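@channel anyone free to eyeball this complex?
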Amino acid sequence: MAGTPFAEMQGVSKSFSGNQVLKNVNFAINKGEIHALVGENGAGKSTLIKILTGIHKRDDGVIRLNGKEVHFSHPKQAEEEGIMVIHQELNIIPHLTVTENMFLGKNITYGKTGILNTKEMKKQCEANLQKLGVSNIDPDEVAGNLSVGKQQMIEIARATSTNAELIVMDEPTAALTDREIESLFKVVESLRKQGVAVIYISHRMEEIFRICDRITVLRDGEYIGTEKIFDVDFDKIVKMMVGRELGDRFPERHHTAGNVVFEVKHLARKGLFDDISFSVREGEILGVAGLMGAGRSEIMETIFGYSGKQYGSIHLNGQELAIKHPSDAIKAGIGFITEDRKSKGLLTDFSIGDNISITNMTSISSNGVILAKKEHQLITELMNRLNVKATGADQETKTLSGGNQQKVVIAKWLGIEPKLLILDEPTRGVDVGAKKEIYTIMNELTKSGVAIIMVSSELPEILGVSDRIMVIHEGKIAKLFDRHEADQEKIMTAAAGGEQIEMEG
Amino acid sequence: MKWKDNLLKDFSKLGPLIGLIMMVIFLGFMSDSFFTLDNIFNLLRQISVNALIAFGMTFVILTAGIDLSVGSLLALGSALTAGLLAGGMDPVLAILLGLLIGLGLGAVNGLIITKGKVAPFIATLATMTIYRGATLVYTDGRPITGLSDSFAFEMIGRGYVFGIPFPVILMLAVFLILYFVLRKTVFGRQVYAVGGNEEASILSGIKADRVKIGVYSLTGMLSVLAGIILTSRLNSAQPTAGEMFELDAIAAVVIGGTSLMGGRGRITGTLIGALIIGVIDNGLNLMNVSSFYQQIVKGGVILLAVLLDRKSK
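replying in thread with the prediction:
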């Protein structure tokens, strides 16, 4: 693919109020190329994209489209040149139909009457979806009833319908099920065939190796390099991203399981899951795999007393617990790191300190009055223990990187000295370096006897961290593996319902 | 003590304070009688009723709620208290019972909102009407007079301590207590957390329903306290007392910079907001501005305060 690249950025620099976030960065992408842009959180990926799409102005450097220098001062101009962004938070209005969403802001009317030509829009909507090879979306369906994956397809179709030549996808698979990821990859392939360039931003290396042609790595706002995907491997990329050898991806784990700490018997919730029985031992990590929507998070929320009425029983250290509210679970010594960090895990408008205090009120107060000294001590101690990188305990958590946010969430639960810690997708949206730190923390916790349940959709993580693996399929336990007898294929088969239910013992 | 430093920091952070000072200086020039001790005390005493309600409203709004029923609740609570007094009950006991009634009526609001899962606006819109109707039924639409002439009852609305009107002292005492509660107690933190993100706070073990019932109960009690001050001042309980009071209370909270979305705000701001509203009323009266125009000015100031607050963010 020689010749002029479709888009080229050369020597781009940018500072925000004296703080340089991009230093002399180069980036080029050809037509029909899928180009991964990677780097830890704060490496400058989003700033680079914002400069490319005209949201920010560059301080220095050149941007060329088809060899011609361009100066965008508004996102509209970039759009007119065919540059589109599919954000992580989709721009879909849930109570409008698929067609209405597709033609948002550019409705087709009968002349200038202002009367909508719904027939024509529906026809074009179908054609746009067809062009991507998507056939299972009804144009008249209300968008909010569709899965996130299908909503994403609408956005991609909307982008391509306005002859997009470059589509930026920001963590496109973060909220997709495995099946949806497969459909997304098919769509990306068809974009490639149509000559559309795709910038693919993701933390998931497996995906990058599967679909990308080249990869560009940024670190601390600096351009580290661009490589053909066949010339590099996982370790090399991580080294480029982190700037040092990270060593093994997962810390070494020696575990000696103790007594059974936590046990669930015949847990069920109508329509969501049924007859869930399992146990976790002292110092053990139980990995929970399964497809999205299999009921994993719902099981954990029920154990924690957050949702719904429960059937069955929950036992901690041999005693049955009556959990009616998360506060009961916390009192018993259970901590729960939720899947959705921003809406359920953190008070994002509040400071790091406030977030840590909130679960630890009993230990930092007396007769309902907060003891400032104790509170300060606890916050400092936990921030240090988890190596939270911030300007101080007063920093608002919404300004932290994903990895640091997750560390704050873990910190607030370590304060209660849990006997059982449930982690739901603990490394989602977390960069490689912080991921390993989180695994190490989990390891240390188990050494001190904490039992851990980890729900994850990333199979390498499940295999790399767990001592035992429980696979959930459509609300039921499909299979229980010991670590050494499981591999990706076996887990996938069980998660997809490929094997008959087989209980342990 | 550290929280005293915070108190000062809180005040200085607030733009409304500057507005208040400017208004006071302006009125000092415009009217000779503004800076007299009589007028200042009169002003503060007028403010105390709205401020007490607005303090409670601050808690409610911090949880992302609203309470429209405060005015009606005030009327019902003070009518019932007046009934007890007219029936010859010991005044201290009657006042305490009155406050408990306020607490209960507020708790009803909270229960409808949490257990009934009714939006606060709708729930308190309904109880606003119900409480007012109940007041009219109980009083038969006539004022209750012939109340106690005991020291305690006279003191609460008409009394002075060291030359300072008792309601003003009461207002300041309640302010200090609530300031402490918001900043230094577990309950205060929970109020902010529930307003900031209810889901996340429940998942952190906070009983959000209890916190909400708590803030509405507190507001109910403070509304009746304000009502008893009024009753004592007039030496009678009016069935129409407290009409439109909810608007002044909400205005004081909003002028004070507390976000209607919940989770953000300060009770010091509310005190300043209540002072601003009081100064406008008082100042325009001194300047002989017609009460028709007064309303326009007040509405304008509320808008201005919110717009300036938005700008500064």
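from a first look: The radius of gyration of chain B is 19 Å.
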